[in-house]
Amino acid sequence: MKEKKQSIIHNFIMGMEKDKKLKRCSNCKQTYLATSEFFHIHNGRKDGLDPWCKACKKEYHKNYYKLKKYKLTDAEYRNMLEEQDNRCAICGIKFDDIFSRYDYPHDYDPDIDHDHKTGKIRGIICLNCNRAIGRCKENSLILIKAVKYLQEKKKKKFMNY
After folding, report:
1. Angstrom distance (rounded) from CA 104 to CA 36
2. Which of 121, 45, 42, 41 is closest to 89 using CA atoms?
3. What pLDDT is attached to residue 62?
4. Residue 156 placed within a domain
5. Total structural domains within the chain
6. pTM of the predicted protein model
7. Domain ends where: 71, 105, 135?
8. Which domain holds residue 42?
9. Which tens digit of pLDDT belongs to each residue from 29-50?
10. Helix extents (H) in the chain
């Protein structure tokens, strides 16, 4: 009886395996299960799935966004990173170390810092520095005052509030 039950389960699982279809990404040429886990839904396609896997599509959109918004090619972006020694232009943290030190998403790309008035790119910075600049409204006077504030408070060690 136990062997028959195991045989039924085995046949059921093997039958499921036969129904699983594979699909090859037309970009990276990797083969994945033909499911929405690996491919975006595309109603205009015969199989109902996008021809590129989700990873390739995501990478394409990141590069397209850089090109469209900043008129910056992927090669130019990589060249800027190399010129900055793969570090934030402000705090100097190595972008490779961000994942181990901070709770950043694993698909994090450093931010392209730009002047919001002119659109001119200033450099590549980490998320924390980008937020700091943004919260100070890109006003260098506010940032200078913040530095002076921190220096003054550091001198007054006895204040406990």
Report:
1. 26
2. 121
3. 83
4. yes
5. 2
6. 0.64
7. 71
8. 22-71
9. 999 999 999 999 999 999 999 9
10. 2-19, 54-70, 74-83, 98-101, 127-135, 140-155
Question: Minimal CA–CA distance to 23: which of 56, 54, 53, 43?
Answer: 53
Residue 153 shares a structural domain with residue 104: yes
User: Of the ranges 2-16, 28-42, 95-109, 136-150, which one carries the lowest mean pLDDT score?
Assistant: 2-16
Whether residue 132 is contained in a domain is answered as: yes
Instruction: Tell me: do 160 and 90 sit in the same domain.
Output: yes
List pLDDT tens digits, range 3-26. 655 555 444 444 445 567 999 999
What is the spatial distance between Cα 93 and Cα 101, in angstroms, rounded to a whole number? 10
Q: What is the mean pLDDT of residues 116-122?
A: 90
Query: Which residues partner with 94 through β-bridges?
Result: 87
| CATH for 152 | 3.40.1800.10
Specify whether 134 is located in the same domain as 63.
Answer: no
111, 153: one domain: yes
Query: b/e for 26-64, b at 16 or more Cβ within 10 A?
Result: eeeeeebebeeebbeeeeeeeeebbbbbeebbebeeeee
